[in-house]
Structure formats: C-alpha cells, structure tokens
C-alpha cells in the first residue's frame, strides 16, 4: 500500500505521517516513510537522533547519484538523459532507519512547471513508483502543503490520498481541491483525517462538510503532541492517547484497502 498524506499547511501532515509509519513498523510491516516536502522535517517527528537528522542528504542533492543514474548533469533542462534510470538499489542504500521505519528524503526539485522533465525529477518519480516490492510493504509519503505539486509526479500512482483537515473551512477547501485533483490524475481514493479536534461539534463540522467523502477518523488536540515537537521527540512515543486515535484510523484504512 502506498499512501500520500496531504493537506493545507500546518494541519498536522508530518505528525500524522510519522505516527502512522511507526505504527505499521511496530506491527511488522516493512515501512518506507518518504519525506516529499522540500522543507523536510519528517525525520524529527519519527524520532531520529539530531546528529542523524543533521547528516541527512536528500536524494535530489546527491548530484553524482542523479548524474550517474540518468547520465545527465543535474540542473540541465531538456537535454538528453535516460528516462528509465536504475533505482532499485536506492531504498536499501540511501534510506536511514530508526525505530523500524526506513526514511527516504527526496529534497527539492526545481521544477519548470507541471511538465518538468529535469533529471532529478525523472529519478525521483521513478524511485517513488519503485518503492513497493512486497506484500507487506507500506509507503507513507509526507507531502508538501497545498496541491500545486501533487500533479507533478512523485504522488502519482499512490493508492490513496489522505487529506488531513482541521475543523475549519480553509483546510476543508484544500480537501475539496485534492479530491478533484485526485480524480484528474487517477487517484480514486481520497480519505480525510480530522486533526486538532476539541469536541464532538468539531467532528460533526467536518463530517457535514465532506460531500460524501470518507472520514477515517479524528485526532484530538493534545498538548503532548506540541510538547513532543518542542523536545524533538516522536509524538508516537509521548502521546498515548493520540496513538490510540491513530490506531483507529489505521485500522479503518486497512479495512477499506482490504489489508490484514
Ligand atoms: N493533534 C494535535 N494536537 C496538538 N498539536 C498538534 C496536533 N497535530 C499537530 N500538532 C502541532 O501542529 C504543528 C504543525 O504540525 P505538523 O508539522 O505535523 O503539520 P504539517 O501539516 O506537516 O505542516 P507543514 O505544512 O508545515 O508541513 C506542530 O507544532 C504540531 O506539534
Ligand atoms: Mg509537514
């Protein structure tokens, strides 16, 4: 299963991605967590030690890797390079692992618009479509905020988008846009997770505004989550209540995807 976690800025995509990844790993799945946000910080939410975090080099910054595999110079545009670079060894060789989760940091691709065909982009796109190898593999992609980049490629071919929303109109509007875009690029399943919920009215507000969309569940506002962010810990380790709420969401997702 390959899912992309999307939504408006600051709604809790990285928090949720990290907790979902850790949960699948703890339950014996082979998990690759993909940090697809150029402003990468998934490693911290996964609980990676600071020194490992500081040493992470995004794939797009590995100039030699990109040029070796695509037979092109990075930063070039519309020149000749391989469109089918070898990527199968990259997850094993370039992921960092912690708490059973393998992390892949994609980095920034200077895109020339939606039709970008620079070598970095081709490599990342091919890499992302190669991440699922076995049945018990789960790929969780923590996406950049907003929707502009979603059509560009790395999120194409996912089984589902999960849109994290807050109980407010602005993040729900982002959800509606993602849903439409999902239809346009062939991602049929677009689920919702409500985050920073305070009470039943918040849950109701979200449900009433989904236009037949599917809410996988709700995560309540929790000071422990804030504190974990302040102390560079994984919310998975510090916030038991939130972890149980994520478990309900995870189980619902698996039943909808027919997974055991
Ligand atoms: N359930 C929650 N309760 C309290 N605080 C939360 C909750 N979920 C997330 N937060 C806090 O909200 C802030 C933003 O969370 P996070 O970084 O996960 O959002 P994001 O959607 O990934 O943001 P960005 O768009 O910048 O990537 C963080 O300080 C985080 O600790
Ligand atoms: Mg984030």
UniProtKB/TrEMBL annotation:
Pfam families in alphabetical order: CbiA
Gene3D superfamilies, sorted: P-loop containing nucleotide triphosphate hydrolases
Source domain of life: Bacteria
Any one of the GO CC terms: cytosol
Cited InterPro entries: CobQ/CobB/MinD/ParA_Nub-bd_dom, CooC, P-loop_NTPase, ParA/MinD_ATPase
GO biological process: negative regulation of cell division
Residue ranges of every copy of the CobQ/CobB/MinD/ParA nucleotide binding domain listed in the record: 4-233
SUPFAM superfamilies on file: P-loop containing nucleoside triphosphate hydrolases
Single GO MF annotation: ATP binding
Keywords: ATP-binding, Nucleotide-binding
Tagged with keyword ATP-binding: yes
Record keyword Cell cycle present: no
Entry protein name: Carbon monoxide dehydrogenase
């Amino acid at each position: 299963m390959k899912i992309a976690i999307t939504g408006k800025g600051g709604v809790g995509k990285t928090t949720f991605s990290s907790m979902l990844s850790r949960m699948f790993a703890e339950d014996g799945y082979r998990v690759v967590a993909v940090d697809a946000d150029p402003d990468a910080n998934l490693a911290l939410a996964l609980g990676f030690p600071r020194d490992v975090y500081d040493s992470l080099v995004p794939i797009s910054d590995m100039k030699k890797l990109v040029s070796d595999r695509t037979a092109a110079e990075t930063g070039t545009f519309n020149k000749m390079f391989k469109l089918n670079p070898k990527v199968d060894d990259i997850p094993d060789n370039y992921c960092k692992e912690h708490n059973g989760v393998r992390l892949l940091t994609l980095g920034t691709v200077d895109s020339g618009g939606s039709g970008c065909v620079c070598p970095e982009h081709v490599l990342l796109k091919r890499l992302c479509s190669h991440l699922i190898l076995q049945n018990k593999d789960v790929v969780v992609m923590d996406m950049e905020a907003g929707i502009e980049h979603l059509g560009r490629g790395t999120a194409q071919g996912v089984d589902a988008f999960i849109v994290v929303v807050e109980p407010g109109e602005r993040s729900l509007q982002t959800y509606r846009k993602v849903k439409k875009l999902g239809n346009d690029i062939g991602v049929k399943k677009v689920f919702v997770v409500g985050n920073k919920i305070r009470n039943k009215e918040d849950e109701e507000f979200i449900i009433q505004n989904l236009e037949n969309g599917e809410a996988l569940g709700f995560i309540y506002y929790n000071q422990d989550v804030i504190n974990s962010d302040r102390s560079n810990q994984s919310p998975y380790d510090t916030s038991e209540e939130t972890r149980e709420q994520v478990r309900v969401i995870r189980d619902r997702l698996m039943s909808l995807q027919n997974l055991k």
